[in-house]
Request: fold
Amino acid sequence: MLVEIDVQSGFCTGVVNAIRTTEEELAKEKTGYAPSLHVIGDIVHNSLEVARLEKKGLVTINHEQFAKLRDCRVLFRAHGEPPSSYEMAKANRIEVLDASCPVVLYLQQQIREAYEELKTGGGRVVIYGKKGHAEVEGLVGQTNGDALVIDNEDDIEQIDFTKRVILFSQTTKNLEKFQSIATIILQRGGDLVTVHDTICRKVSNRIPELRKFAGQHDVILFVSDEKSSNGKQLYAVCKEVNERSYFIRSIDDVRPEMLEGANSVGISGATSTPVWIMEELKNKL
Ligand code: SF4
Reply:
């Protein structure tokens, strides 16, 4: 059986940087150089990778636990954080290791500027994204909680089209869906609407090649975690092209009937899927 790993899969640059920073800091911890390292939320949307790093000493906390910490190190992951997290860290003498992805930081800056611009003339920042998603919380925080988050066409009704609208997107949303939502908003608001396409191409640029890859194999094993939004999106692309595509977390989810009669198996994954899980799967297959 031919087993091939999709060369495009594996961590995106934002996640590579966050994991590298974590490992470097954990190594310092081993020599007794610094106190324990905390991270707000899963360092990456992959529970096996989270478990690997937690075994090395990383402590995953939530925002409530973060508020109680004093005099320690906290890593901000690639999703970014709202300004309130930086303020709290400063007030509580917490050393911040900022692994926010530069793409997200730039988007935060654009949103801050748009919010300031609208303060004088009126209007609202609108973000196409998943409500409650960590990146979206960080983006809304740039507007003091004022931005409107929309996740589907029905939510467009909440927009006041008598005033200016500046539209952005969460970086990992589906490009085609964003474009279709932006078209409707432009039709409704006309000149009052400004659209910023802020989708990270690390995901959408993979789609054409992923379609080819999914078509080249009898079976596709797509390795990801339910928490990964780009994982669900990229898996849907595989499923569209190849009916025998399966969403799995690791080798443990592979059942013999999935591979029945298959001469070639393609392994792919999300931007949060570590290569070591895909290699382990390939070896075991
Ligand atoms: S998907 Fe893009 S924006 Fe998100 S962490 Fe990766 S590189 Fe950064």
In short: The pocket of iron/sulfur cluster is lined by residues 12-15, 78, 101, 103-104, 171-172, 200, 202-203, 271 (CB under 6 Å).
